[in-house]
Write a structure and sequence with these properties.
The complex is a heterotrimer, with 2 copies of chain A and 1 copy of chain B.
Chain A: H1 5-15, H2 22-28, H3 34-51, E1 55-60, E2 63-68, H4 73-80, H5 89-101, E3 104-105, H6 106-113, H7 118-126, E4 130-135, E5 143-147, H8 149-154
Chain B: H1 13-23, H2 33-49, H3 56-71, H4 78-107, H5 140-153, H6 169-183, E1 185-187, H7 198-213, E2 217-220, E3 229-232, H8 247-252
Antiparallel strand pairs in B: 1-3, 2-3
The chains are: A alpha+beta, B mainly alpha.
């Protein structure tokens, strides 16, 4: 390898059209250890952050990707002449339910939202934000839904664990799995 | 001067309920059911008057509200009523608020192609040598779409299957009975999930009609939206053992 | 304009999929003179050249474009060689038929698609998406096709059973209120 590892990785990231993980990069640069690659990625990330350019290297969807800083979106949108990615509120709510409750059945999503979500599931599947994870062993063998990798990419998430925690439903002996810091007394005003 | 009635369109029943709770400035943990129910129903009336389709989802919650309201007239213990309000109304609302907030949080993030942008595949790099075990850039939905396209091009009934098996009504009735024995009850469409051709589909359907006609299978629809359900009414599981295809199916034969 | 012109232009060049000329950029940033834009482009070009990164801003026939330095192309090519390719529409349709109708004979696929599929079957076999399951006991002993394991991987399916059934597909399409990028009709009266 006649070039510095950091710059080789930079070149790969620059020419890629999706986030690259240390593992993938290792596939192309097998002469380097994954640890070294990971280290180089971290350094690149910090370096670009410090440089104050219009783009940075971001860790997203279990990989790294160069992205413009958010302040530049008005100009980029002008150029691309596209309307920004937009999800309707129902779609966003449905997506949130799937993200937080996956694996989940359509029936369960509908119970939580109180409305039919067939059309919305179709949209989310088409946009590649959700995926079918399998079938549940129930009558009718219903499909099980979960988020797809694209969800992490679009919503700037490193992985599913970095989803912001759901806010608490305070008190009342809720048998929810999220048990958090000291429940405060009833009739909580949310934000 | 605006119009007197400004009609918000709500995504769903929970949305409307929340709106009413906010409008009345009441506590979500202490909902005045009678008031809220009346307002909820009045809202549905307005929607109907304006010829807006009131989706079934709204009606389900309406009936829950009415049910609770009517029970409050009964001398049930107060605690019991509060428990019911909490379980049927407050709890789903809290859960809904929580997920709605989560949706908002998601939307506040730096979204790709809205707030931030990645590089596009630079075309000068594309097409410089390809293949060698390339990955595939397709998703499931493209596949489904492709299949739908094919199916839509074809007239119903022309669909040929290479499966050469010919199904008889008798065989299908046996299969249905076996299914019902195993599961007790099944959904209508489950009958057809394995059918590979229109003709097989039709045979399954005929077999079902036959079974219903002979009173061996009961057919019912729990609610308007749900799928039709089939249950066995042929004496059931006690004689499970070796009844396989002799007992009932002998009758079916004629 | 609340950002330095140079960085705005940098963001545009970064997100563009083709070279940009000063004139084009002026079209999106009409509040700036073309001379200023040209000047900023020159400065960016010199700046990147001096920075010694793996990519530079190059002036090519149609304008300016970020490109990796030639020394890095062996690595970039390694990556591109294994980059995803798309399936042609006929290939996708053929694959869909095999997925949903397997086990299936070529003759039957051709009846459904109305065209010869010999070449496509070969491609799909090469890509490892389909496999030959055996031969049918018919004159000529025709081959029977089905999907291969790789098919499941590519479509992120746990098993064949997770393929949505026709009825479920119809269900998705049923409720059309969620098609475009705009908010759904039922919600657009809000605010």
């Amino acid at each position: 390898m006649d070039k510095p590892l950091k710059l080789i990785i930079e070149a790969l990231l620059f020419a890629a059209d999706k986030p690259l993980s240390a593992r993938e990069i290792h596939g192309w640069l097998s002469e380097e250890t994954q640890a070294n690659i990971r280290q180089a990625l971290k350094e690149l990330e910090a370096g670009y952050d410090a440089m104050g350019r219009s783009f940075v290297l971001k860790e997203v969807a279990e990989g790294y990707q160069f992205r413009t800083r958010s302040g530049y979106s008005p100009y980029v949108l002008r150029m691309l002449k596209t309307s920004p990615t937009r999800l309707s509120r129902p779609a966003l709510e449905t997506l949130a339910i799937i993200a937080y409750k996956q694996p989940i059945l359509r029936q369960e999503i509908e119970r939580l939202r109180g409305v039919d979500v067939g059309g919305i599931l179709k949209t989310l599947l088409e946009k590649g934000l959700i995926r079918i994870m399998g079938r549940k062993n129930l009558p009718g063998r219903p499909l099980i839904y979960g988020t797809a990798k694209r969800f992490l990419e679009v919503f700037d998430l490193k992985d599913l664990e970095s989803l912001p925690k759901l806010k608490e439903i305070k008190d009342f002996g809720f048998d929810e799995h999220e048990t958090g810091p000291a429940p405060s007394p009833s009739s909580e005003n949310r934000k | 001067m605006g119009y007197e009635v400004r009609l918000d369109i709500f995504e769903g029943p929970l949305d409307l309920l929340l709106h009413l709770i906010h409008k009345n400035e009441v506590d979500i943990f202490d909902i005045p059911i009678a008031t809220i129910t009346d307002q909820y129903l009045a809202y549905l009336d307005i929607m109907k008057a304006l010829n807006i389709d009131v989706a079934g989802d709204f009606l389900v919650l309406a009936s829950t509200l009415i049910h609770i309201k009517s029970k409050m007239l009964l001398p049930d213990s107060k605690e019991e009523q509060e428990g019911e309000i909490f379980n049927e109304i407050t709890r789903p609302l809290l859960e809904y608020i929580r997920l709605r907030d989560a949706a908002q949080d998601l939307s506040d993030r730096e979204l790709l192609d809205r707030d931030v942008f990645a590089r596009h595949v630079p075309p000068y790099l594309q097409g410089q040598l390809r293949d060698e075990e390339p990955q595939l850039d397709v998703n499931l939905f493209q596949l489904i779409d492709a299949f739908k396209r094919i199916m839509e091009q074809r007239l119903p009934g022309v669909q040929l299957s290479f499966q050469l098996e010919k199904w008889s009504v008798k065989e299908k009735t046996e299969i249905i009975i076996a299914h019902l024995k195993e599961k007790g009850s099944i959904f209508f469409y489950e009958l057809f999930t394995e059918d590979r051709s229109v003709s097989e589909f039709i045979v399954s359907f005929l077999a079902l009609l036959e079974l219903v006609h002979m009173g061996l299978v009961k057919v019912f629809q729990p609610t308007l939206e749900s799928d039709i359900r089939l249950t066995a009414s042929f004496g059931g599981n006690e004689e499970n053992g070796n009844v396989g295809s002799n007992g009932q199916t002998a009758q079916i034969d004629h």
